[in-house]
C-alpha cells in the first residue's frame, strides 16, 4: 500500500488536469453538435453525447487499471502487445465491419471498435522497447531499417482497409527517430518527397524534370564538392524523376475516388462546394460565422441545422469556432499547445530511455492528429478522417488516446524506480 501511495504522489497531475479539461470540453461540444429540442438531456444514451459519456466513464476505468499496473509491465509486454495489434489489423481486413466504404471496425453488439486506434500505443511501446535495447543506435543502417519496419508495418496493414488518414499518422513517429539520433536528412527527404508528390499532381512532368535538373545543377555549382558527390546528386535526380512519374499511378490506383477528389479540391484542380468539398466548405462557413466571441452555447445555426456532416467527429472543431468564436478556438488551441510542451518537458526528465522514447511517441501522435484535424476543418489539408484527440466523438479513439497518454503518465510516475 505504501508503494501505491508513493506512485500516486509522483503522478503529473497537470497532465491529468489537461486531459480532464479536454475530455469534458469535447463532451460539451459533442452535445452541442448533435443537440435538438426533442432530445435535450445530456444523459440520453440514444444520442452520441450519451454514448460518449459511457466511453468517458469506461476510459476512467482504463486509467485506474494503468495507474495500478507495475511500470515495468509495459516494457516487458511491449512486443506481445505490438504483435496482438498486428493480428487485429489483419483480422479486421477479413472479419471487420464496413463503415462508409472502409473495413476498419470490429462490431461488438451495438458497439464498434477500431483496431487502428489501439495500434498507435502498441507501436509506440514496441518502438520504445526496440530503441532502448542494448547497442541499438539510429546511426547504424540496420537499426534504422528495423525501427522503420516497426513504424510502417501497421501503417501498411491499415492502408488496404482503406484508411490512409490513420496510416499517415505513423509517419509522425519519424520525429521520435530524429530525437534519438536519426539524421535530419531523412526528415528532409520525406518532406521533399511529399512536396514533389504535390508538385507532380499540379504541374506537367516535363516542367518537373526541368525544375529538378536546374536545382541539381545549381547544387553542384554552389557546393563544388568531390566527384563522388556529383554522382550522388545524379542518382537522387534519377530517383526523383522516377518518383514523379510514379505519382499518377499511385494517385489513380492506390487512393479511392473520395480521397483523390478531396486532394484535387485542395490543390485547386477541382471545385465542388456541393459535393465532395461540401464538408470543408460548410466547416469554414461555420467557423467564420462565429466571429470573435461566437454565437453562444447551442446557438450555432450551422451546427443546429446539421449543415456540417460528421460534425461530432472529424469536424468537431467547427462547433467550437461557431459557438465560441475566435476566443474559444484560441483557448482550445492553447490548451493543446500547453499539453504538448508539458509532454516534451516530462519526456526530457525521464531517466529511462524506454520512457523517454515512448513519451516522444505520445507527443508526435497527438500533435499530428491535432494539426491535421484542425487544418482539415479550415481547408488547409484534405479531409482524411482523423479525430481531434480527447475531443471528437468515438469510443475507440478516446480509449486509444487515453491509454496512449496514461501509460506515459504511469511511466513518469514510476521514473524513480524503473530501470
Q: How would you describe this structure in keywords?
A:
3 strands, 3-stranded antiparallel beta sheet, globular, mainly alpha
Molecular shape:
globular
Number of domains: 1
Mean pLDDT: 83
| Number of helical stretches of at least 4 residues | 18
Strand order of the biggest β-sheet: 1-2-3
The share of residues in extended strands comes to under 5%
Largest beta sheet, briefly? 3 strands, antiparallel
Q: Span between N and C termini? A: 21 Å
Number of strands: 3
Rg calc? 23 Å
- The helical percent reads 55-70%
Which structural category fits the helices and strands? mainly alpha
Order of helices and strands: HHHHHEEEHHHHHHHHHHHHH
Low-confidence stretches: none
Short account of what is shown:
This protein is mainly α and 419 residues long. Helices cover 69% and strands 3% of the residues.
Topology record:
Blueprint lengths: L1 H8 L3 H22 L13 H20 L3 H6 L1 H18 L1 E3 L2 E7 L2 E3 L1 H17 L9 H18 L5 H6 L4 H6 L4 H19 L2 H19 L3 H27 L3 H10 L11 H12 L11 H4 L11 H33 L4 H25 L17 H19 L6
Antiparallel strand pairs: 1-2, 2-3
Written description of the protein model:
The protein has helices at 2-9, 13-34, 48-67, 71-76, 78-95, 115-131, 141-158, 164-169, 174-179, 184-202, 205-223, 227-253, 257-266, 278-289, 301-304, 316-348, 353-377, 395-413; strands spanning 97-99, 102-108, 111-113. Strand 1 (97-99) and strand 2 form a beta hairpin. The protein is mainly alpha-helical and 419 residues long. Helix 5 (78-95) packs parallel to helix 7 and helix 6 (115-131) packs parallel to helix 18. The chain has one domain (2-202, 256-413). The mean pLDDT is 83. The protein has 18 helices and three strands. The protein starts with a helix and ends in a 6-residue tail after the last helix.
Amino acid at each position: 500500500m505504501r508503494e501505491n501511495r508513493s506512485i500516486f504522489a509522483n503522478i503529473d497531475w497537470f497532465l491529468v488536469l489537461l486531459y480532464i479539461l479536454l475530455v469534458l470540453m469535447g463532451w460539451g461540444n459533442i452535445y452541442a453538435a448533435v443537440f435538438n429540442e426533442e432530445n435535450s438531456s445530456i444523459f440520453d444514451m440514444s444520442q452520441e453525447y450519451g454514448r460518449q459519456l459511457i466511453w468517458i466513464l469506461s476510459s476512467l476505468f482504463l486509467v485506474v487499471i494503468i495507474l495500478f499496473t507495475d511500470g515495468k509491465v509495459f516494457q516487458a509486454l511491449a512486443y506481445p502487445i505490438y504483435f496482438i495489434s498486428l493480428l487485429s489489423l489483419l483480422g479486421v481486413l477479413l472479419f471487420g465491419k464496413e463503415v462508409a466504404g472502409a473495413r476498419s471496425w470490429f462490431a461488438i453488439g451495438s458497439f464498434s471498435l477500431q483496431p487502428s486506434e489501439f495500434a498507435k500505443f502498441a507501436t509506440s511501446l514496441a518502438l520504445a522497447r526496440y530503441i532502448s535495447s542494448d547497442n541499438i543506435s539510429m546511426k547504424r543502417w540496420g537499426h534504422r531499417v528495423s525501427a522503420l519496419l516497426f513504424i510502417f508495418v501497421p501503417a501498411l496493414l491499415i492502408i488496404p482497409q482503406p484508411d490512409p488518414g490513420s496510416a499517415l499518422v505513423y509517419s509522425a513517429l519519424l520525429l521520435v527517430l530524429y530525437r534519438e539520433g536519426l539524421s535530419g536528412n531523412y526528415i528532409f527527404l520525406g518532406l521533399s518527397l511529399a512536396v514533389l508528390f504535390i508538385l507532380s499532381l499540379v504541374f506537367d512532368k516535363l516542367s518537373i524534370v526541368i525544375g529538378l535538373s536546374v536545382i541539381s545543377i545549381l547544387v553542384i555549382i554552389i557546393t563544388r564538392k568531390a566527384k563522388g558527390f556529383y554522382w550522388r546528386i545524379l542518382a537522387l535526380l534519377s530517383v526523383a524523376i522516377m518518383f514523379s512519374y510514379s505519382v499518377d499511378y499511385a494517385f489513380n490506383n492506390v487512393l479511392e475516388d473520395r480521397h483523390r477528389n478531396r486532394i484535387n479540391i485542395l490543390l485547386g484542380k477541382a471545385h465542388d462546394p456541393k459535393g465532395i468539398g461540401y464538408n470543408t466548405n460548410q466547416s469554414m462557413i461555420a467557423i467564420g460565422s462565429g466571429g470573435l466571441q461566437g454565437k453562444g452555447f447551442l446557438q450555432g445555426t450551422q451546427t443546429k441545422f446539421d449543415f456540417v456532416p460528421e460534425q461530432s467527429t472529424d469536424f468537431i472543431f467547427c462547433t467550437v469556432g461557431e459557438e465560441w468564436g475566435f476566443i474559444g478556438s484560441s483557448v482550445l488551441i492553447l490548451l493543446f499547445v500547453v499539453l504538448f510542451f508539458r509532454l516534451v518537458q516530462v519526456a526530457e526528465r525521464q531517466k529511462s530511455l524506454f520512457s523517454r522514447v515512448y513519451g516522444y511517441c505520445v507527443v508526435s501522435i497527438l500533435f499530428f492528429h491535432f494539426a491535421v484535424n484542425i487544418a482539415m476543418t479550415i481547408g488547409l489539408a484534405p479531409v482524411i478522417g482523423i479525430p481531434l484527440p480527447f475531443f471528437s466523438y468515438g469510443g475507440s479513439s478516446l480509449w486509444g488516446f487515453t491509454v496512449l497518454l496514461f501509460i506515459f503518465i504511469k511511466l513518469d510516475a514510476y521514473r524513480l524506480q524503473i530501470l
